[in-house]
Specification:
Radius of gyration: 16 Å
Shape: globular
Distance between the termini: 9 Å
Strand content: 5-15%
Bound molecules: adenosine monophosphate
Structural class: alpha/beta
Number of helices: 9
Order of helices and strands: EHEHHHEHEHEEHHEH
Low-confidence stretches: none
C-alpha cells in the first residue's frame, strides 16, 4: 500500500500517520522529520534545509526529491509506505510519478484554517521518534515527556505564530494545486480534520479498508 497524506500544517497529518502506519504495517516517511534528523546530525543537507524551514518556506524541490527517492528505495518500504509531507509541489508529484511509484490513495485532511494556529502553537513533538502531542487536545501522560520513547518533548522553532503564516502561504500557493492533480487521477479522498482525533482515524480506516 503506497499512500500520501496531504493537508496544511496543523491538520493532524503526523498524528493520523502514526495510526495509519501501525494499523497497516507500512513505513512512515516524513520529509520534515528527515530534514530535522539531518539538522540534528549537522549534515550539509540539514544545514541547507534549515535556511528554508526556519522561515516557513519549502526546501527546494531538487534537494527534497533526491532525498525522498533514496529513502523509499530502502528495504522497509517494500511493504508500502505513507508519505507525510511529500509531495508539497507539482514538481515533486511529477518526480514521484516519473520514478515509477504507483500511489494507491491520497488522503486530504481538510480543516478550517482558523483552527490551525492554536493547534500548531500548542504542539509539542518528540525529537527522537517524531511523535506529536498537543498541550491541551492530546497531552502526553507525563508533561513534557514522550509517551512512546521517554524523550523530552520540544516546541519546534517553526511552530511559532510568526512562521505559521508563511507556512500556510506556501501551502496555498505550492501544495494546494496537488488536490486537483490527484483528483484528476481519481486518487483523492477527503477527510474532515476538524473532528476529534479518534473520529478522524475512523474515517481514514473506512477509506483504506475499502481499497
Ligand atoms: P513538516 O514537518 O512536514 O511540517 O515540515 C517542516 C518543514 O520542512 C517545512 O515547513 C519545509 O520547510 C520542510 N519540508 C518538509 N517536507 C518538505 C517537502 N516535501 N518539500 C519542501 N520542503 C519540505
Amino acid at each position: 500500500m503506497k499512500l500520501i497524506i496531504l493537508g496544511p500544517a496543523g491538520a493532524g497529518k503526523g498524528t493520523q500517520s502514526e495510526f495509519i502506519v501501525d494499523a497497516y504495517s507500512i513505513a512512515h516517511i516524513s520529509t520534515g522529520d528527515i530534514f530535522r534528523k539531518n539538522l540534528k546530525e549537522g549534515t550539509p543537507l540539514g544545514l541547507k534545509a534549515k535556511e528554508y524551514m526556519d522561515g516557513g518556506l519549502l526546501v527546494p524541490d531538487a534537494l527534497t526529491v533526491e532525498m525522498l527517492i533514496s529513502r523509499i528505495s530502502e528495504s522497509d518500504c517494500q511493504n508500502g509506505y505513507l508519505l507525510d509531507g511529500f509531495p508539497r509541489s507539482l514538481a515533486q508529484a511529477d518526480a514521484l510519478e516519473a520514478a515509477g511509484e504507483a500511489i494507491d490513495q491520497v488522503l486530504l485532511i481538510d480543516v478550517d484554517y482558523s483552527l490551525l494556529t492554536e493547534r500548531i502553537v500548542g504542539r509539542r513533538v518528540c525529537p527522537e521518534c517524531g511523535a506529536a502531542f498537543h498541550i491541551s487536545n492530546n497531552p502526553p501522560k507525563i508533561e513534557g515527556i514522550c509517551d512512546k520513547c521517554g524523550a523530552e518533548l520540544v516546541h519546534r522553532p517553526d511552530d511559532k505564530e510568526e512562521t505559521i503564516k508563511a507556512r500556510l502561504v506556501e501551502y496555498d500557493e505550492k501544495t494546494k494545486p496537488l488536490i486537483g492533480y490527484y483528483e484528476e487521477k481519481s486518487l483523492l479522498a477527503k477527510v474532515g480534520g476538524d473532528k476529534p482525533i479518534a473520529q478522524v482515524s475512523q474515517a481514514i480506516k473506512q477509506i483504506l479498508d475499502s481499497l
